[in-house]
Amino acid sequence: MAQRATKRQVNRLPPEQRIADIMRSAREVFTEKGYSESLISDIAERAGVVEGTIYRFFENKRDLLQRVAEAWYVEMMEASEPGFGAVQGEWNRIHYVVYSHLEALQRDPGLARLVFHELRPDPHYRSTRLFELNRAYTRRIADIVREGAARGVFRADVSPSLVRDMVYGTIEHRTWAFLRNEGAFDLEATAREITNIVYGGLLPRAPGGAPRDEILARLDLLTERVDAVAQQLGS
Amino acid sequence: MAQRATKRQVNRLPPEQRIADIMRSAREVFTEKGYSESLISDIAERAGVVEGTIYRFFENKRDLLQRVAEAWYVEMMEASEPGFGAVQGEWNRIHYVVYSHLEALQRDPGLARLVFHELRPDPHYRSTRLFELNRAYTRRIADIVREGAARGVFRADVSPSLVRDMVYGTIEHRTWAFLRNEGAFDLEATAREITNIVYGGLLPRAPGGAPRDEILARLDLLTERVDAVAQQLGS
Amino acid sequence: MAQRATKRQVNRLPPEQRIADIMRSAREVFTEKGYSESLISDIAERAGVVEGTIYRFFENKRDLLQRVAEAWYVEMMEASEPGFGAVQGEWNRIHYVVYSHLEALQRDPGLARLVFHELRPDPHYRSTRLFELNRAYTRRIADIVREGAARGVFRADVSPSLVRDMVYGTIEHRTWAFLRNEGAFDLEATAREITNIVYGGLLPRAPGGAPRDEILARLDLLTERVDAVAQQLGS
Amino acid sequence: MAQRATKRQVNRLPPEQRIADIMRSAREVFTEKGYSESLISDIAERAGVVEGTIYRFFENKRDLLQRVAEAWYVEMMEASEPGFGAVQGEWNRIHYVVYSHLEALQRDPGLARLVFHELRPDPHYRSTRLFELNRAYTRRIADIVREGAARGVFRADVSPSLVRDMVYGTIEHRTWAFLRNEGAFDLEATAREITNIVYGGLLPRAPGGAPRDEILARLDLLTERVDAVAQQLGS
DNA sequence: TATGAATGAGTGTTCATTCAT
DNA sequence: GATGAATGAACACTCATTCAT
User: Mean pLDDT score of chain B, rounded to an integer?
Assistant: First the structure.
């Protein structure tokens, strides 16, 4: 009889392997084309499965993106966690966090773009595991600020969460051109600059703490006095 | 094929009026629903025109969004321009810019969302008039830094553009929840906090000491001299 | 955004069946309404599928038309191929081709219209499979001419491709009114007439190649002279 | 007071001039871009008028095309009319018509394309003035055939209208590639070839036999007589 | 479990034509 | 007569998701 060729190549793999394949493939495609330009069929093909299989492991396309992004956060945390404990000194600790994050962005600008432009703007972002991961990831800055304040190195009246926003906001704006594939950035210099300015903003100022215009006010006062004296002399 | 003849209600208006109507309507709809959920037909209806009329004045839906955003920037600049010149002192100037921007975001969070999540991520953003407007709009921070450095108030080794990224990055991260309609922010407090920390980061630091101490020292010196003069006179 | 979930009635059929259904339906609709008046949605409905299914098998509306036309050509070739080999004699062979083609036009005037007015005018027609099919289909006329010339039945100085253009050009002009649904044509008579005139134009003329009436005129002249001489002699 | 610049440049021209301008412009645009790609606004601009003005003189875009095509036919007739009367002999007369038409196509392939692919396929073509013009234009072939038959030069059993279809059908198919801008054609050779084959198809054939047999038979006859004479002379 | 064919909603854009000025 | 701003209908195509096999 005619030997019929098997129509399908059913490749039964352990689920973890399948999931890993799909996520790797999805990360590739999402990174290359962005979310909406990515096709499930493309992701499936690269992973060596068919569309339907993806839906066995992921709710939908969005969920797949979420999971890819979550994995990236986990990866970033695992990459920077080990060394962190050993770093001593406020400046060094801030610098470590900033440097690590910039390094991660440099490694995976495509993923960063996805998180910044696709996931974060989502109306439900805040009820997302990604949001939680991000909080955990960014908490270290707030911790450093708190500890620094406790140790008297930093001013106590600065909101740790504000510093967190400042650090990550600055990094994000600073790396835009790069994330858009429109230029590189100098990892070392950028990390140092950002650290310097943030650190400087946290250092305590003279007791009394009046902002500089108070000083200027006092200068004005003083000037008046001098003028008064000068007038007396001129008379 | 054959265009069907139908009754028409032609309502001839000056182009400026039409454009204004359409942009107002587009701003409303875009703000309410976001870009992709907005329908041209909806915008047209609210503006009291038909779809085709919109395409007389705007290339396409995207162009309409651009123009709305540009107008917003112009509006923001006009709103904050007048007062700026009168503000004296570095702290006050930074605070003015931060406060104005926060105020604008508070007034139009929808537009901010559009710019941040729709327009800025666009691959061609940097060749856009909006990009130019944004540069003009954000230049003031860099100018303040430069002038402050020239006057010796600020450290000279800080990149003005880094400060710009810091200011706007911080503001953006700080107001996310609000832009997402998930909470308000305290305009006064936020402006002050951001200004304080940025300002603090810019002040020169005495090697080993707080920067303002130097100022105080000089003040004291000056005071001594004045007192000396006064004494001479009084004697 | 989110694709809405709806109940579905999936009806899995072998691809050949689906394609056949769609092409049959498309042929109907295109034939009835012409290309631009035909709606994909209409074609889909008659084929018992949804629009999307059509796009699984056909690139776009134009491609669908192409494929329908190609199938028509294949059909025409299959219909007239078998008998052709058995036909003997140049006149009969030309007549067979002409007759078959007229018969095909009579059967499917709508398709002919589509090919003539939609597909052939297309700027890319010549790089089309339809063009190839047409060449194969019309080659027989050229072959007949070539063979006839080789056998000495036809003049050797006639371009086979010109005859092809003549045959199909004549048929096309002759059947216009019919293709336009403005009258019928007599299949037998038309085929005979066209065959006669074409055949007549192919028969060899006296060597020397002067046009035939000139030859006849000179023959008359010569005859007269001969007669004159004969008369003189006979007298 | 400020001198206001005149908003409009009303250029009142005699209607004939306006119409001529518009038709010239329309002929240009239609010829360059084809019917459906041509924009009324483009035609208007090139003619130095606005859209509305065109509609004062032409019913609609289609009508404009019609009128342009009609003018072309009139032009063709005027171009070939004068010489025609002077041409003697059936072959020459057919050749004159064929040559003139090929020449016209060569001059204005764009217009030919428009007539062939846009106007003629129209369902209402036959109730069109263009159709009438075409009939008048192509009548000469039928007339030649009729006259030739009356003078005994052509067979009497050939339908003049069939010959007309043959001539114009052949010309059209023969010049396709050229009309499509995909190659040139040799005016002289093409005209001669087409004339030859058509002419040959019209010549009378001996009843029951191939036409050249008649010539040969008469030649044999004549030869016999000549031989007879020769014999007489030789005797 | 895996397959992959079938589903079907949803909208920006064009441009001939009109008619108030 | 000329202007040109306003009209508005009309439709191909995509692709995430499902579910019968």
Answer: 84
